[in-house]
Specification:
heterodimer; A: alpha/beta; Rossmann fold; five-stranded parallel sheet; 39% helix; B: alpha/beta; seven-stranded mixed sheet; five-stranded mixed sheet; 12 helices; 19% strand; globular
């Protein structure tokens, strides 16, 4: 049962703030390499709600059969995913800034189930199908665990995604939830200019998915959206978000998809996040 | 499991694909609880109808969606299933190659790819349905085992081996109905080990897939001209049989690699890559498709353009200094 109370939503909003601050530490640590700040900040609340409430897991038994499977298809969400894993207790806080270290265990989107990294995503358009395979397996084994696949909106340009969308509905996978981080920007600009996605809601609905749109930066709205399920249908949350959310100079700018950050920008961003600009 | 001569003839009539999916997979399903067989709308053609009816829980048809098939196969494998995924070799090794690279090669999901109609079996369908680069694509991927069946019995043995081995495997099936028989009697299939099918002192042919039986015929023709040519079946393209190859390199001045595949990146290339490290190694002639697309027609017609018939193979070897 998902707790949709205001108190819980407020708690998750606080957690979101911590994730954003951690993300800035990671961004700063990446130095001149730069990092995927924009698309990580857009899904901070999604991560907080998943790891703070929705997902069923046990850090002391990370391979537990009944754990929910979180599959990050847009794996460049590391700047919010790794902090969420750290807050959940999978990864020591001091390790999160080592996510680009040569040969490091967090480097290069690895699959390390023992620290909650269920899948190595990264190449877009492939993970939904894996999530479908897992969901089919869980259902057959009568395992109550659910599968959550986080996808970017730009990723929906990939044809293989629609093969998956068609088949998840065909197999009536109601143990599968897809979250679309609908930040409306891909690398080259507006998703609607690059390759039109709208009406995304109508597309999913016509593919026979239980389709829910919500404000992806409201933990309250996300909690309610996650709670809404229909038997026999896969669930999709189209979470309306802002790329770079919470950091004024990065918001809605495609160049912050992957960018380096200066010390001054870091200070400003942290001040804005602490000041509560986010949410 | 052993096979009588009459069973071997039955398998041959079914062709390599039919032998695996119309026959062997049912026996594998009987003994493996965690088996799944996935196809991309090729159940009828592959002779899976009986299997699908008998084992509905161990069967999944994903429609014409190869990329989705490999993803689903990988997800199932991550949850402990032993998954066979199959369609034409031309699609499974190419359309879904990135899914294969990420999930089978890199993440080492326990998925067995079975590519059917490899080579130019689908001769009249043209280049879109030919798989003449599949070995090159899959062989380049770390962690993959790559097998190529010479006849229907070998195809069945490979399917059984793959089912009993943990890790990703690619099985290349070729040959239509009435696939030529290389093994008239049952034998022990040992993955990774070259099989010497014919002795000879003047030269050695290393062949794979349908070219094994064609090369045996070529060796007969060569014998009539007084050339004593050995024939080896290289059924495992990856990992290569280093010991077996080393013996061949030291015994012959001339070897010919023969494959129903582009000469770039295929079995011959695998042999040459290993041979490159040896001083005084034999000269190698590459027999296969010469890095171009031949014109469509009957399988024999396509082979003739590329010099892949027994007569052409023997003539080619005859003309080489030994």
């Amino acid at each position: 049962m998902i707790d949709t109370s205001k108190e819980n939503a407020d708690r998750l909003t606080k957690m979101s703030k911590q994730i954003r601050l951690d993300a800035m530490d990671m961004a700063l640590a990446s130095g001149n390499n730069g990092s995927h700040l924009g698309g990580s900040l857009s899904c901070v609340e999604i991560m907080a709600v998943l790891y703070g409430e929705v997902l069923n897991f046990d850090v002391n038994d990370p391979l537990c059969e009944t754990r929910d499977r979180f599959i990050p298809s847009k794996n460049h969400c590391v700047l919010s995913h790794i902090p969420a894993l750290s807050i959940a207790g999978f990864i020591p806080r001091e390790e999160i800034t080592e996510f680009q270290k040569d040969g490091g265990r967090l480097t290069g989107y690895p699959m390390r189930k023992e620290i909650g990294l269920e899948y190595s995503g990264g190449s877009l358009g492939m993970a939904l199908s894996v999530g479908i395979g897992i969901a089919l397996a869980l259902r057959e084994k009568k395992n109550p665990a659910r599968v959550y696949v986080l996808m970017g909106d730009g990723e929906l340009n990939e044809g293989s995604v629609w093969e998956g969308i068609m088949s998840a509905a065909h197999y009536k996978l109601d143990n599968l939830t897809v979250i679309i981080d609908r930040n409306r920007l891909s690398y080259d600009g507006s998703t609607e200019d690059v390759m039109q996605l709208e009406s995304l809601y109508d597309k999913f609905l016509s593919f026979n998915w239980h389709t829910v749109c919500c404000n992806g930066h409201s933990t309250q709205a996300l909690l309610e959206a996650f709670s809404s399920r229909i038997e026999g249908k896969p669930q999709v949350l189209i979470a309306e978000t802002v790329k770079g959310k919470g950091v004024s100079f990065a918001e809605n700018l495609p160049e912050w998809h992957h960018h380096r950050i200066t010390k001054e920008q870091y200070e400003q961003a942290c001040a804005e996040i602490k000041g509560g600009a986010a949410n | 499991m052993s096979y009588t001569s009459s069973e071997i003839r039955t398998l041959s009539r079914l062709g390599q694909r039919g032998a695996v999916f119309g026959n062997a997979m049912a026996a594998i399903a009987e003994r493996k609880d965690n088996l799944k067989l996935l196809t991309a709308d090729l159940a009828l053609l592959s002779g899976m109808t009986r299997y699908a009816a008998a084992y509905p829980d161990k069967f999944l048809n994903v429609g014409i969606a190869e990329q989705n098939m490999i993803g689903i196969a990988s997800g199932l494998a991550m949850e402990g299933y032993c998954v066979f995924a199959t369609t034409y070799a031309s699609f499974i090794a190419v359309r879904s190659l990135e899914q294969v690279r990420q999930h089978l090669s890199y993440l080492q999901c326990n998925v067995k790819l079975v590519g059917s109609s490899a080579g130019v079996v689908a001769a009249r369908s043209g280049v879109s349905h030919w798989a003449t680069e599949d070995l090159a694509f899959i062989r380049a991927l770390p962690n993959m085992t790559v097998l190529s069946a010479a006849d229907s019995l070998e195809a069945v043995k490979m399917a059984n081996y793959a089912a009993d081995t943990d890790g990703p495997v690619y099985i290349r099936l070729s040959g239509g109905l009435n696939c030529p028989i290389v093994y008239k009697e049952d034998y022990d299939f040992e993955p990774g080990k070259l099989i010497k099918l014919r002795d000879g002192k003047d030269a050695a042919i290393i062949a794979t897939g349908l070219m094994v039986s064609e090369s045996l015929k070529a060796a007969e023709l060569l014998a009539q001209s007084g050339i004593d040519c050995a024939v080896y079946n290289m059924h495992t393209i990856k990992p290569v049989d280093k010991d077996g190859l080393k013996e061949i390199f030291s015994a012959y001045k001339l070897i010919a690699t023969v494959e129903e595949h582009n000469i770039t990146g295929g079995m011959g290339s695998a042999v040459a890559e290993y041979k490159a490290g040896f001083a005084n190694a034999p000269r190698q002639i590459f027999i296969g498709f010469s890095d171009r697309f031949e014109r469509a027609g009957s399988q024999r017609y396509v082979w003739e353009q590329a010099g892949l018939t027994a007569e052409q193979i023997s003539e080619r070897i005859k003309g080489e200094p030994r």
